[in-house]
Design goal:
By secondary structure, the chain is α+β, with helices and mostly antiparallel strands. The chain has three helices and five strands. The chain has a domain of about 90 residues: Beta-lactamase Inhibitory Protein, Chain:B, domain 1, CATH 3.30.1450. Strands 1, 2, 3, 4 and 5 form a five-stranded antiparallel beta sheet that branches.
Length: about 140
């Protein structure tokens, strides 16, 4: 009778300490799309060319497949233990000129950006990388 009790106890112990989500699951913030800020939207003016818009906003996340005159910029942040923040800017062009600007979402505050807290090594800035000496460099020969 003592052996089945040990087996059941061992089974319950393994079940509770296994990879099940009994104790909770680690979650991450998931940012997706183009980062859209209020400052970027404020720089847009009707009459700007597509090139000028691309310099301010970057390339669009979505271009309407049947109407090349509409660009969509969408930013979505799904917080791990919170809600979802979404911003959307739709730009409509008339030929090569910006005609209409429509936006949705909360632009009153800066977007919440997830911190880079991964388990991997921290990335170094380019300024922190030492330059290699050029003593042993041979010129290219034709």
């Amino acid at each position: 009778m003592q052996k089945p009790t040990r087996i059941v106890t061992l089974f319950l112990l393994l079940f509770l300490t296994s990879g099940c989500s009994y104790f909770g699951v680690y979650k991450r913030d998931i940012p997706q799309g183009n980062l859209v800020t209020a400052g970027m939207v404020e720089q847009l003016r009707p009459g700007m060319t597509r090139q000028q818009v691309a310099e301010v906003m970057g390339s669009p996340l979505l271009e309407a497949p049947f109407d090349a005159d509409e660009w969509d910029y969408v930013y979505r942040l799904e917080e791990a233990y919170g809600g979802v923040e979404q911003r959307r800017v739709t730009l409509t062009f008339d030929g090569n000129r910006l005609a209409e600007i429509a936006h949705g979402g909360d632009f009153s505050r800066a977007p919440a950006l997830p911190e880079n807290r991964g388990i991997g090594p921290a990335s170094k800035a380019i300024d922190d990388v030492p330059e290699a000496p050029l003593d042993n460099v041979t010129p290219d020969r034709p």
